[in-house]
Design goal:
The chain is an alpha+beta fold. 25% of the residues lie in helices and 31% in strands. Strands 4-5-6-9-8-7 form a six-stranded antiparallel β-sheet. It has a two-stranded antiparallel sheet with strand order 1-2. A hairpin with a 3-residue loop joins strand 1 and strand 2. It is elongated and about 70 Å long. The mean pLDDT is 88.
Length: 249
Amino acid sequence: MHYITINKFSSVPLYAQLKESIKKAIDDGILKDKDKLPTEEELCKTFNVSRPVVRQAYADLIAQGAIVRMKGKGTFVIKNFVRRNFFNELSNFTGEMERKGIAPRTKVINVEILTSEPYIFPLLALIEGTQCLHFKRIRYGNDVPIYLEDTYISLLLFPGLEKYDFAVNSLYSVFERDYHLPVAKAYNTFNAQVVSDIDAVLLDVKKKSAVHRVQTFTYDAENKLMEYSIASFPGDRNQFDIVIRRDKD
């Protein structure tokens, strides 16, 4: 903890001094990506400061995307904070991560064929008894869970899609390459929600914590819905940039 300097006679709040010391150590390369930070208790004892001081400093750094808390493991430096542009960008996860210098990995949690689902089937214009593919994936960047995604696709439109391993295959690439139906556009809707206990374990976040919930509706060139997905993004690991352009008069 030699990189931390706290002066109790300074007019600068203690939490701000702690935060800036850690941020400078990260910027200067003293603390590297994935380095584990001291616990709250260790910082309190070493610098004789209160827990609220440490918690505020860590909370600010988490909000800035400089560090991340992982339940049961501790607090770590995370230099590869993920930012996404949802204005004019359609890309697969692997390509997006690689462009940002982040090592991508995908794990498929569950694959099933549904024949009834009261919310999903009307969205995909499916009647009860029709087959719908559902798979759940968790996406990692540098082995940190970035988001969890449930995807639903009509097997009437894409017969045999259940045979693909979407831990290694890009869904959009399969649509275009093997079914000759490229994605033309996608709509996203955003809201905040409390993560389920099961998803909290998979995402390695605290139970009952808030996540960004993103619904994606993917369409072909004829405006037919190809895919519907729901994803949960931990707020301390993701930032969304949305560009709004003004129409010309």
